[in-house]
Amino acid sequence: VAKLCVCDLLVAQCDVNCCCDPDCTAAEFSLFTTCSIPIVTGDSRLCSQKAAIYSLDVEANPPERIFKLIDHINPNVFCIHTANYKQAFSFISPETPTSENFDQLLKQFGSATFSTEFDSWNINPDSQSSSDTNETYRYEYGVPIQTVDAFVRLPSPVVSSWCSDANPAGFLVNQATKCSRLVSVEKCSTIQAVSMLFYINSSILAKWHEFVFQVNITVQSIIVQSLNGMRTLLNSNEVLRLPTVLDELCINIVLGVSYHITYTEAGEIIEAAASFVLGAITKETLSIQQSFEISFTQVNTKPVPLSGNPGYVVGLPVRAGFRPHGYPLPNTDKHGQLTILQSTSNQDCLAAAGARTPVLFGYNMISGCKLRITAAMECQLLAQTLLDLLKGQNFPEYVASFGNSQAQDVLDWVPITHLHTSEQVKIYNVFQSSCQIPVSLEIEVQWTKYGSLVNPQARIVNVTATVTTAALSQLPSGRERTVPITSSVVFTDISSPAEPGYKARPTINVKLPFDFFFPFV
C-alpha cells in the first residue's frame, strides 16, 4: 500500500495535494493545503491489512508531509480473514498462447468443460465431484443468457433514447424496453439490428460449459404492420423475412421482438421462441422505435400474469390466492384474481350466480342485484346461496402485496381479514323463526407507496372483507318482497405524508461511461 497512489495522474510531475505522489519534493509538499487521499488501503474486504496514512504538519516551518504505515482493522463482521487464493481479488490477464505453452493450454481449456485449477478437474461424469461442478454451471437468476457467440440481446436505451445492443437478457428477469434506431431505405438491408436473423441466428447454451447442448431460437409468430398501423398475423412462421427494398419502401423491418424462454427447475433452458412485429419504412423515415420483451415460464407450469413489477399498476387485476390444507405456501386460484359480483342487465340475483368481474387496482367499484323473496324459499338455503353469490364459489384467503409477488414468497402475501356486521333494518319474513341473510359484501383494500419518493411503488398492506347481514321479519302469506344485494370495493391510500419542507431530489437513472470523470477522481 505504500506504493499505491490513486491521485498520481501526471507523469513525472507533482499532483497538487496528492500526498502519496512520489514525484513531489519536500518543497512542493510544503505548499499543499490538504491531502486529497488521506488513507490508502488494499482490499476493503479483508479483516486486517496494512494502511498508509498521509497528513500534513502545518505547524512545522515549512509545513511537511507525515507518512505512517499502520495495521488497519476492518470493523465489519463479515470480512475475509485469510485469502488462500489472492488471484481471485482481481482480474487475471489470460495467458497468451505461444509455441511453448500451446499444448498445455489446449489440454487444460480445449474440452467442453474445464476448471481454473486443472488438477481438480475430473472428466468422469459419474463421479461426485463432476456432478457438483456441473451444478454450478446451471443458470441462476440474473445471469446473462449465453449463446454460442455472445449472449441473447435485448436492445435498450442507455444515456439517450437510441438503442444499445450491448444489453444482455438476464435469466428469469422479465424485461420490456423501447428505444430508437437510425434507419434509411438505402441501407436497410445492411443494418443487422432491423433483420430477423440478428435475433435468432445464434443458439442458446442450455448449460454453461457442460456438454455442448444448444437450444435454437424458433419463430413463434410474425405480425406485419402496415404504414398506417394496421397489423396482420401471418399464417406461416417458417419463412424468414429479411429487409428488402421494394420501389421506394423497405419492408420486413423489425419493429418488435418478444422472447419466451422455457426452463426447468434445475435452471436449464429447454426451449426458446421469438415473436416478431415487422413493418415498412419510406424514404422520409429517419428513425424507428423498436420494442423488446422477454418472459420466462417453468416447464409443466402455467404462466401467472403479473399486475405490476414490482408495485401494482392502476387498472390491473388484484392478484389473489388461497392456501390448500396442509400446504405451507399460497396458491393462486383459477384466474389468480380477486373478484366481486358482476351486475347483469335483468338485475336478478339468482340468474347472476357465477358471474364475476375482477377487482382492478385503484378502481372503486360497486355492483349488485335484486333478490325476490317468496314463501317457498328456505331460510338457511337462501342465506348460503347469497353468501356464495357475494363471495363466489372459492373466495381467496390471500392477496398479493405486490403486482409481481410469487407463490413461494410467503411474506409477500397479505391474509384477508373477514368481518361480519348486522343491519338494524328488518325485512318481512316468510319463515316461522328469525333468520339472518347476507345483503352486502364490502372489500376495503389499504395500500401504501413503497420505496423511493421519485418512483413510488404501490403495495397492498391490508385487505378487509365485511359481510353485512339483515334480519328477516314475518311476511304476510302470499306476499313478496324485493331485497337489494350489493358488493363494493374501496381502495384507501394510507401512505405516510412526506416530512414538512422535504423536497425529493430529482434522480437521473442512467449509466455513465466508465471513464466519464477521467482524469478526475
UniProtKB/TrEMBL annotation:
Organism superkingdom: Eukaryota
Alphabetical UniProt keywords: Cilium biogenesis/degradation, Glycoprotein, Signal
Residues covered by the Tectonic-1-3 N-terminal domain: 2-102
Pfam family, one: TCTN_DUF1619
Keyword Glycoprotein (UniProt): yes
Protein name listed in UniProt: TECT1 protein
Keyword Ribonucleoprotein: no
Family matches, as InterPro entries: TCTN1-3, TCTN1-3_dom, TCTN1-3_N
Biological processes annotated in GO: cilium assembly; protein localization to ciliary transition zone
Listed GO CC annotations: MKS complex
Subunit and interaction comment: Part of the tectonic-like complex (also named B9 complex).
Gene name of the encoded protein: Tctn1
Species annotation: Nothocercus nigrocapillus
Signal peptide region: none
Domain annotation Tectonic-1-3: ranges: 138-299, 308-493
Similarity field: Belongs to the tectonic family.
